């Protein structure tokens, strides 16, 4: 497994982001100005969209770079360039309103096991309103804008309710609903987390390109069907951002390429109105820039999440993740009146492997042991390494105590087989404690503690055996024979 990359300092990150944001915003400005009804209006909304996307992906840390980029592009592109109050102040207002929207959405988006949350939506809208009001008050202090304070306050508040507020009201629910549909929570199903991740990735390779393709076809066909000059190709940026944010850079690029290629090929092959090549180029460049930004942010998030929830030696979920999975399993067991069992597995005399063959061989053995335990249980069960030579298995649905014991015996015999560590074969054993959840008031901690307690009894009972704690303190031993941990050539 790859180690964590070297992190750059925060100030360097912000500086590095400036050229990327500048390019993305300049492209957004150019692309949006092709769809204008009133001069520059679409371009302003493009900057609002970029602000939401950026702050959602990277947080408020990039705001200085975002602000500088917007100001720089406006100075270069507005008909009367220069450091006018509107060039300097309007981005502040937009970043306040839309930056807060993005920052709040980030709280939702960065959760590994996110759930739809109405309070977040309410907080987003409330804080966007406060930001808009503050920026209106700020505008009244700016004589350069040339209106009376009351007029300015009125105009800014009205513009918020007419424009920004509508934008916020559409952006927040649309994002939450679509993100929910296309990126279902990974702990929701009965699958193991790793399998769930694999399935989500495989699905996203189909769903997002299909979404980009449909929007591209729709945007090519619409002007021909309606016989109007409505250009909506910019909509393909939406699946690109969603794909980048939820599945990473490669899927983001893939969706950008599929959508833009469809625009080009479908436009000429079907004889529909195809936009000017410059528009396609802008859309393509913008799609790629957004795919890169959103995807990089997803990759960062996934890396942080992997570090926080998976064990680096075995690649299995860690203590944090297994507790989360156990909580889910108990909740569902209470609802469906089924039984959950927890196995606490501790390898016997593992220290000897480290001492005789070294830590590298020890790591190798832990990895192989993890794989064997995984292969001995069902796909829907969770296997985790929670520290040292300790593993926990959550059997999400067992028929009876005997069923759990049967699985524990399978695990024990899988671990008995010799391990190949380089040129050496090593034989070890394990002590297993099993606890079965049956009482409705039992918490995750209770069940885990009981399994741990039973495992300690198995250790003190002579190791290489299974105890289960049908009663909290007394275990029942299933002695499978005494095997000393041994190493041989
Ligand atoms: N190779 C390796 N060893 C580890 C790792 N984490 C902990 N250990 C070692 O695992 C050993 C755990 O030993 P213990 O469980 O205390 O003792 P044991 O030798 O297994 O003996 P019993 O559990 O009493 O049968 C310690 O020597 C730790 O240093 C790891 O990530 N890699």
UniProtKB/TrEMBL annotation:
TM region positions: 14-32, 44-68, 116-138, 158-182, 202-222, 228-245, 252-272
Domain GGDEF as annotated: residue spans: 338-471
Keywords associated with the record: Membrane, Transmembrane, Transmembrane helix
Keyword Membrane attributed: yes
One of the Pfam families matching this protein, by short name: GGDEF
InterPro entries membership: DGC-Regulatory_Protein (IPR052163), GGDEF_dom (IPR000160), Nucleotide_cyclase (IPR029787), Rev_trsase/Diguanyl_cyclase (IPR043128)
Zinc-finger recorded as keyword: no
Entry's Gene Ontology molecular function annotations: catalytic activity
Family matches, as SUPFAM superfamilies: Nucleotide cyclase
Protein name (Swiss-Prot/TrEMBL): GGDEF domain-containing protein
